[in-house]
Amino acid sequence: MEENKNEIKSVVAYLRKSSEDDAQGQANKQLNSMDYQRSFAQEAITKYNLRIEKSFEDDKTGYEAFVRDDFQEMLDYLKEHKGKVEGIVCTEISRLARNFADGGMVLWYLQNGTIKYIFTPSKVFTNSSSDQLMVAIEFAMSKKSSDEGSYRTKAGMKSKAQKLRHPARPAVLGYVTEGLRGQKLWKIDPVIGPMVRVVFEQFATGKYTLQEIADFAYSIGLKSTAKRSTTGKISKNTWLNRLQDLQYTGIFYHKEERIVGEYEWLIPSELFYEVQDVLQNSKHPKTTHMTYAYSGIARCGLCGRMLSGTHKKGITYYRCDKRGEPCKNMARTTYVDEKTFEARLIEEFSHIEIDQETWSVCRDYVSEMNQPEKIKIKEQIRKLGERIAYEERIQVEAGRKFADDKILQTDYEKLIKDSNLQIALYRSTLVKCENIVHELDELMYNFLDNVKYVTKRLAIALPENKIELITIFCENLVWKDGKARFDWKKPYFILAKQPNNSTVLRR
């Protein structure tokens, strides 16, 4: 520095403020405030005879690598202006980085000559080997300090959770928090708590969708306290989260550890897992309204809108709603009765007749078509197996803690009970998945075996069964010019597209 005392050096200034400074106390907070850092940058101009070409500011932690936009921009700027900009001004080395990845880039820039100096209030670091070592040590000490701070924070939260045996977070719907800061305990809300339990009990019946349970909850007085809520209703997504929240059973997670709380449970474990079964199997209430077989699947051949069903004098009709061109300008609405509609469908279906050769082709096609779905289901089976193994490891670990007198017998029994319920739920789903894998081809094979009887089945089927048949066989179903027209779905298009003189199909 003495040799070039009168030479003005071009540099950049780097300023960074993050929450880690607040955590280290008031003195550190003031030392690394943005005002202080800007003030030092101005003082450095005179003190070290500098010209600041550009300033870069970040408000993110230096502990994580590659997350600070201005830091990355500064590195790019220094690389582009190598030989013109000679260094960096900052209040301390830890401002530049608290991790080895970002710190390593600064060291590399010193080593390859991209920069020659780092100016701080107490020292000017040059690109000499001894100063590079000092910078490396500063980075290492900063990272160690951050690591220890992070560890203490996490350990403190874990200790709090284990000591107080209450979740270290705000109480969920149905609970309130009581006590001093840092010692808050969960208590069941005497008004809201019982209503939350009623919601669980009602949903466990399988008679409610999520939207309906949200409406039910609102009707009994459970309302949103969020300021942004305009209706006062708790959303169905929020209810989905609440219905899956294990904390209601008196067990909570801290990181990946399952802890038995000392707060009173609101929902019995058996009821909680009944709700999980309903959610997992998507049970919905049965509706009692009249079902029209072709509403929602057949379209008007003129305007393309769906036909709607109506029932008059014991006869079911289908008609266009006349909301699309050209139907909306027509004076009369054309009705087609269901028997006429079905007669046209049966006429088309009667053309299909399968011989042994086509039956074999279809079986091979079905097997190939189902292969991707089988792979997905097998992957789900693998993941369920991993979850079961994880629960079994939790049981072993709980047994060790109980044997070492680290947890009470009541806590051990509650953990084992919860884990067994989890395993039962996973195994139930696993069995269903395994059955689907085995039945995926067989269901279609049986359908192919019976396809020549489809006309009789369509004629005598209930509306919901007719919907199933049409959905399986047909797509793009329209009624036009007194005829039902449609495209055959896979794999039935193989049968329908045989030539008229084929021995496979009878026309």
Automatic annotation (TrEMBL):
The keyword Isomerase does not apply. One of its GO terms (molecular function) is DNA binding. Keywords: DNA recombination, DNA-binding. InterPro entries: DNA_bind_recomb_sf (IPR038109), DNA_bind_recombinase_dom (IPR011109), Resolv_N (IPR006119), Resolvase-like_N_sf (IPR036162), SSR_resolvase (IPR050639), Zn_ribbon_recom_dom (IPR025827). The keyword Iron-sulfur does not apply. SMART domains: Resolvase. This is Recombinase.
